[in-house]
Specification:
By secondary structure, the protein is α/β, with parallel strands linked by helices. It has 13 helices and 16 strands. The strands form 2 sheets. Strands 1, 2, 3, 4, 5, 6, 7, 8, 9 and 10 form a 10-stranded mixed beta sheet that branches. α7 packs antiparallel against α8 (246-270) and α9 (276-292) crosses α10 (303-314). The longest helix is centred in the middle third of the chain and has 25 residues, at 246-270. It is globular and about 65 Å long. Mean pLDDT is 92; it is low at 219-223.
Length: 429
């Protein structure tokens, strides 16, 4: 059989989900696929389940990784792949039946280096699944056409995942695109994602979703010292790749800096308080280096982000104290109310949830609130996500914390006050 798509499935202790994941790949309408299952030493029965499927379907191969490293698993799988294109399925997720047939057809018709599609995020099982659509872009012009990413660098703002598409294997080999083989699994797909965008001359984006990304498996968060610098290490890996080629670095240095900043800010918001002062010092040091390398350009950042970055680089100790003061002002407001609504279910909202939890206010959080359902989950950490118009009963006796980017806060504050919410607290910049 000529293999059209090689599907790599990295696993580690996903016994609860692995059968459903494999069944979704086995049941693909495209039959000319192979499944390369790379296990990193599971101890919960995952490997035994994989072996049973391997014995029943000759399209399945099981490989055992010698390291507990997501990057190592992926590189082993890609080295073993024989298909024209390569796909990735995380083994606590699943995919819809026509995914690979339709993506492969798009790839062949357009001679694409890679094809990426929209995706769903979901919680629950069986009939209780709740899903939310995530689009790669809100702009139609990026879909259903060939894009040279170098000339359309706005694409670097698309969701950073590797599993919602397929990649021409020849393209990966030609450009030596590999995963970083650091221990564990945090951020190791970031370098692969970034490289595919850097080298692609023929990228193709599909405005349809096929991939189901689970969001209720316990999160791998940055609460241990070993994970604090995962984002930093991954972006150092990307930096070293770009710096090997001066022309490549000059073409992508500005978009690299913006992406790196977003990753560092995200890590800072999620990590435990005890590690933040040290991390902010590293934050400042790394971006002073990028400034010396000519990678920082004010026009590429939102105004608030640029001010924050300059603050961090100039005086990380003062920024740390500022960061702490934000939390203290949040706590000062929170202790006055028995009910707290977090407006915003994105990165800032989730960071605010963590801050309130660390401050002992987890039990007072009623829900997350959003302006509209599209693009948002129904729950996060067992806290419901509800449209703000459905919360009018809480207008007078609850605190609403506006946890969104600073440039959106005034608009949301005005709307909440127009709806009659009396206790509105925009997070300080």
């Amino acid at each position: 059989m000529s293999v059209k798509v090689s599907v790599i499935l990295p696993s580690l202790n996903v016994g609860r989900y692995i059968a459903g994941c494999l069944e979704s790949v086995i049941g693909q309408s495209l039959r000319e696929i192979e499944m390369i299952c790379v296990d990193a030493g599971s101890t919960d029965g995952t490997l035994e389940i994989l072996r049973r499927y391997e014995a029943a379907d000759d399209r399945i191969r099981v490989i055992c990784s010698d390291k507990k490293s997501y990057g190592r698993q992926m590189n082993m799988g890609m080295a073993a792949a024989k298909g024209e294109y390569v796909g990735i399925v995380e083994t606590d997720d699943f995919i819809l039946p026509g995914m690979y047939e339709e993506l492969y057809r798009k790839a062949k018709d357009n001679d694409a280096d890679f094809v990426k599609a929209d995706f769903y995020r979901f919680t629950g099982e069986g009939e209780n699944i709740r899903r939310a659509l995530y689009r790669l872009s809100g702009k139609a012009r990026y879909y259903d056409c060939i894009i040279d990413v170098e000339k359309t660098q706005e694409c670097f703002s698309f969701p950073m995942n590797t599993w919602s598409g397929i990649y021409k294997r020849e393209f990966l080999i030609k450009n030596n695109i590999r995963h970083n083989e650091t221990p564990g699994a945090s951020y190791q797909d970031t370098g692969f994602w970034f490289q595919t965008f850097v080298y692609a001359k023929r990228a193709y984006f599909v405005d349809r979703a096929y991939y189901m990304n689970r969001r209720d498996n316990p999160d791998s968060s940055v609460f241990s010292k070993s994970k604090v610098y995962c984002a930093s290490d991954e972006y150092r890996y990307i930096l070293n790749i770009l710096r090997r080629d001066e022309a490549l670095w000059n073409r992508f240095r500005h978009v690299y800096a913006v992406s790196c900043y977003q990753a560092y800010k995200g890590s800072l918001g999620r990590m435990a308080q005890e590690y933040r002062a040290e991390f902010i010092a590293r934050f400042a040091e790394d971006f002073r280096e990028l400034e010396r390398l000519g990678a920082l350009k004010k026009e590429c950042f939102h105004d608030t982000d640029w001010r924050t970055l300059c603050f961090i680089m100039k005086n990380p100790q003062d920024y740390y104290r500022h960061f702490i003061l934000i939390r203290e002002s949040l706590y000062e407001q929170a202790r006055r109310f028995e009910r707290i609504i977090i407006f915003g279910a994105g990165m800032v909202g989730k960071r605010t949830f963590q801050d309130l939890k660390e401050g002992g206010y987890r039990g007072r959080i009623v829900c997350f609130a959003v302006s509209q359902r599209q693009g948002n989950l129904n729950k996060y950490k067992d806290i419901s996500v509800i449209i703000i118009d459905e919360l009018l009963a809480y207008r007078k006796n609850s605190l609403v914390v506006i946890a969104v980017s600073a440039f959106l806060q005034q608009e949301i504050k005005d709307r909440l006050e127009a709806l009659g919410f009396e206790n509105v607290f925009p997070l300080p910049e």
